[in-house]
Amino acid sequence: MKPVELSSDRVGVFAGDDPFVISKAWLEEARSTEINDPNAIALSTVDQDGFPNARIVLLKDIEDDGFVFFTNYTSTKASEILESGKAAFVMHWKSLRRQIRVRGAISKVTDADSDVYFSSRSVFSRVGAWASDQSSPLENRAALEQQVKKMTADLGDDPRRPPHWGGFRIAPIEIEFWCDGPDRLHDRFTWRRDADQFNWVVTRLNP
Ligand SMILES: Cc1cc2nc3c(=O)[nH]c(=O)nc-3n(C[C@H](O)[C@H](O)[C@H](O)COP(=O)(O)O)c2cc1C
After folding, report:
1. Which of 12, 21, 40, 132 is the most exposed place for a label (fewest CB within 10 A)?
2. Closest CA to 115 of 162, 156, 75, 151
3. Separation between Cα atoms, residue 80 and residue 135, nearest integer Å
4. What's the whole-model pTM score?
């Protein structure tokens, strides 16, 4: 399905008919240029009062129609996500001088998908997911280390996924690609779902 174009000069790194394919290509390029964590996204949520919140998480998959990351389902971010059903993120690559912005509806991935990703993690990371009650107060570091010890003894060498841990998928209503240009004359193209939430309408924006 071809996007509807409201501009005539979407070329170079912006070219293509699918924003997920473009996102993947940019991330792939960043994997060889960024020093650390090319897949880091600043994930934004709002609390019950509409107060914004943001933190970094790692984007683990770009699917045909969504962006996936993993976290603790009892964390602050998860409460905010489950309450509002909405999220946004931005990823910025200093090495490429590019950013991608995404806004959309967010929901849990299937248990099966979370199981698959969880089992790919190191045993230490898996134990950590059990030991850390993410976002709740912790008396001191020793208490966390004690909890890791206890969980290591309890869970053995192949810990299953804790029920409080898994993935979220953002299904975008809007994706914006930004690339640095000379004299602050940057290039921006925003992809918005049209009224029936199916086709993409692509618009060039002023920098
Ligand atoms: C580079 C980097 C990567 C991170 N990746 C994740 C992640 O994938 N999942 C996660 O839950 N937290 C991740 N964190 C920690 C979060 O930023 C945050 O501290 C934590 O998820 C608790 O956030 P919350 O209290 O808003 O729920 C990462 C932090 C950094 C700096």
Report:
1. 12
2. 162
3. 12
4. 0.97
CA distance 28 to 13: 12
Q: Is the CB of 69 under 6 A from ligand 1?
A: yes
Q: How far is the CA of 25 from the centre of ligand 1 (A)?
A: 24
CATH superfamily of 4-119+163-205: Electron Transport, Fmn-binding Protein; Chain A (2.30.110.10)
Spatial distance between the Cα atoms of 110 and 130, rounded to a whole number of angstroms: 19
Distance CA 76, CA 43 (A): 12
Of 185, 179, 193, the residue nearest 15 (C-alpha): 179
Residue nearest to atom 18 of ligand 1 (CA): 55
**Contact predicate 119/134, CB 8 Å:** no
Give the active site residues.
184
Residue with tokens 């010890």: 149
Q: How long is the chain?
A: 207
CA 57 to chain centroid, in Å, comes to 6
Q: Whose CA is nearest to atom 4 of ligand 1?
A: 57
Q: Please indicate whether residue 138, judged by its CB atom, sits closer than 6 Å to ligand 1.
A: no
Beta bridge partners, 92, equal: 99
